[in-house]
Amino acid sequence: MNNKLVMVSGIQRSGTSVLYYTLLNGKTCCGYEEAIDSELFKDWNLKPESQIRECLQNSEKPVLIKMPNATADHRINQILEEFHAYTVYLVWIYRDPVNVCYSTLEHYRHRTDAKQAFYDSIARYPDPLAAIDGFIEQWRERNRQVIDALSLSAQNIFVVKYEDLVEDPGVVAALCRHLGIAFRYNFRPDSNAGYTYLPEDVCRKIARMTADVWCQLDECRHFTPDRNPMRRYLKRLRYEAPGHRIRLIRRMKRGLKRFAQSA
Question: pLDDT tens digits for 11-22?
């Protein structure tokens, strides 16, 4: 009988999907994504424990659940308390809010000229910057929720930063050692598209109004990337899929060649 649950959550567009598949592709978990109607979900929300108990306990492997919406409607401590009979871990991922905001806009609206389309889409607002106030409020509130939850359930919660997972595969490895599961590294360099395509005044407002919570999250995270670039590179070679590993080696050779030519 399975008794381990690993729940992946965070604000939508913060990297919950890539983290979920990184853990799932390690082949040591049985995975469930949020859905409008499935064994574990109803209307995108996690069903009560009593309704999914048989499914969870009959699994031969630890159960991995991707559930960003569940923590939008329920407090984290309430969820952990409901599943107290299990060995439950909640992995909370957070990401630069400027890039989260842009990714959210892109996910729900297709645009060609992002800067102009951004203003066009919110033209009904007297102040264009007022359109992102709701996003900022949600980003702050939901990330503060995990900060508050840590004071009561620190042993059950791991806070990880999207940018750290991209920078250093060793952060993913450290997380999985604590969770007791395997992984297959799926993270790719972040394009930082928010800073490229969102208007500068929008970027400044988001950064200014989320800075305090961002700093608190940085202090709460459980793993930090290796500061040595060579060790990070070697870990990436170790954990990358073969095709990406070849591209990394070619990129390194080009960099060494440019360095030798400039010396």
Answer: 989 999 999 999
